[in-house]
Design a protein that fits this description.
binds pyridoxal-5'-phosphate; two-stranded parallel sheet; globular; alpha/beta; 408 residues; single chain
Length: 408
């Protein structure tokens, strides 16, 4: 019982699952900075700076780029609940768990939902999504870019253009890819996008960067209703259906993040500091450099795993560079391996969900974690634990292959 009063002292793990990943120490330092009041000019300046940094991260000229407080699904819900009115036609292409999540949230918003599915471990040929848009004529297409559940990244060619041609909005969930893969919002003609901090942005879970364009802002503002206690004198509500969430109401969030600074929630001060530092670190490295680092690390990890005699999961030509699925070999206790890695090496790798449960491990090389030392440590730890399980990889082949990949 005395333990409850012990100082908080979590073990130092290397988090190489599909997220959260080990946070950059600079982000952890930002979390410890002094709190400021939400209308302190120093704080509102940080809010404005976050908007500038997020625009660069999303590669967009959108006026609206800000944080939704909560984990990545808070950003998803804010966009979907603000954009979808009951009865709106929505198309969700599903190629993993998070496509199912988008469908589930859209359904809760009262959407008239159409889904198409691709087998887990594969992606859609973009033409299949375009054909589904032409057939179902949705108001909104909601699509995951990189689905960590299967490690696949959906090619986006022509999907934004098809949405524009058919007067549909395009929302993309880039939780797992922002900062690790190129996701140029404007070039891909994406109307709204959301992400999270705990993957390629090297921060803790708990803040969701989002962006959306003026088309979305107009749609949402037509549904604008402001809380009675704060509505400015003479405020006239929009005549569209009221947005069914107060916390995730993008119309009110725009008033909070915009020059009106109309009070809504209390912005999560420390998470805003963290998000600012996450974005600053990626942009300081350079987007292209950051994407290239993720690619090189992924190639080296794959080379090492294959040299160990392991099989990579899924259609590798569409694998995200920041997470790799590994088929658990016949006769090996997958959870036993993960437990031994955690207890003996302080290393976390990921398990899987749904149809992949017990079939694959998922190894993340995201953000701060995507480096040579971690790949070599992960390969050697995994090799040692697999040996304990009776699996016999060729000795040291994995390290040699990974090092050769880094040199090459
Ligand atoms: C693609 C994708 N979308 C959404 C989520 C949900 O994020 P969160 O758990 O931060 O709400 C995740 C988390 O793994 C994800 O990978």
């Amino acid at each position: 019982m005395a333990e409850i009063f012990d100082e908080l002292n979590p073990p130092q793990r290397l988090l190489m699952g599909p997220g959260p990943v080990t946070a950059d120490p600079r982000v952890l330092r930002a979390l410890a900075m002094p709190l400021l009041g939400q209308f302190d000019p120093a704080f509102t300046r940080y809010m404005s700076e976050v908007m500038v940094l997020l625009r660069q991260l999303f590669q967009t000229g959108n006026r609206w780029a800000f944080l939704v407080d909560g984990t990545a699904r808070a950003g998803i819900e804010a966009i979907l609940v603000s954009m979808i009115a009951p009865g709106d036609r929505v198309l969700v292409p599903i190629f993993g768990r998070f496509g199912h999540l988008l469908a589930e949230i859209a359904r809760r918003c009262g959407a008239e939902l159409t889904t198409i599915e691709a087998e887990w471990g594969t992606v859609f040929p973009p033409e299949r999504i375009v054909a589904a848009i032409e057939k179902s004529r949705p108001k909104l297409v909601a699509l995951v870019h990189g689905d960590t559940s299967t490690t696949m990244a959906q090619p986006m060619d022509g999907i934004g253009a098809a949405c524009r041609r058919h007067d549909a909005y395009l929302y993309v969930d880039a939780t797992a890819t922002l900062g690790g893969m190129d996701v140029p919002v404007d070039r891909w003609e994406i109307d709204a996008m959301s992400a999270g901090l705990q993957k390629c942005l090297s921060g803790p879970p708990g803040s969701s960067p989002i962006t959306f364009n003026d088309r979305v802002a107009s749609l949402v503002n037509a549904r604008k209703h402001v809380e009675q206690g704060i509505a400015p004198a003479g405020f006239v509500p929009g005549n569209g259906p009221v947005i069914r969430s107060n916390y995730f109401d993008l119309a009110m969030l725009m008033d909070y993040w915009g020059p009106e600074r109309l009070n809504h929630h209390t912005e999560a001060t420390s998470m805003l500091y963290a998000a600012r530092e996450c974005a600053r670190i990626v942009l300081k490295e350079g987007l292209a450099e950051c994407f290239a680092r993720h690619r090189v690390v992924s190639q080296a990890l794959m080379a090492g795993l294959e040299a160990m005699g392991l099989t990579l999961y899924g259609d590798i030509s569409h694998k995200m560079p920041n997470v790799t699925g590994v088929v658990i070999p016949e006769g090996v206790d997958g959870e036993g391996v993960r437990t031994a890695l955690l207890s003996e090496f302080n290393l976390e790798i990921g398990t899987s969900f749904g149809p992949l449960r017990g079939r694959i491990w998922r190894i993340g090389t995201m953000g701060y974690n995507a480096n040579e030392t971690n790949v070599l440590f992960c390969l050697s730890s995994l090799e040692a634990v697999l040996r304990q399980q009776g699996f016999r990889p060729p000795a040291d082949a994995a390290l040699a292959a990974a090092q050769a990949a880094f040199r090459g």
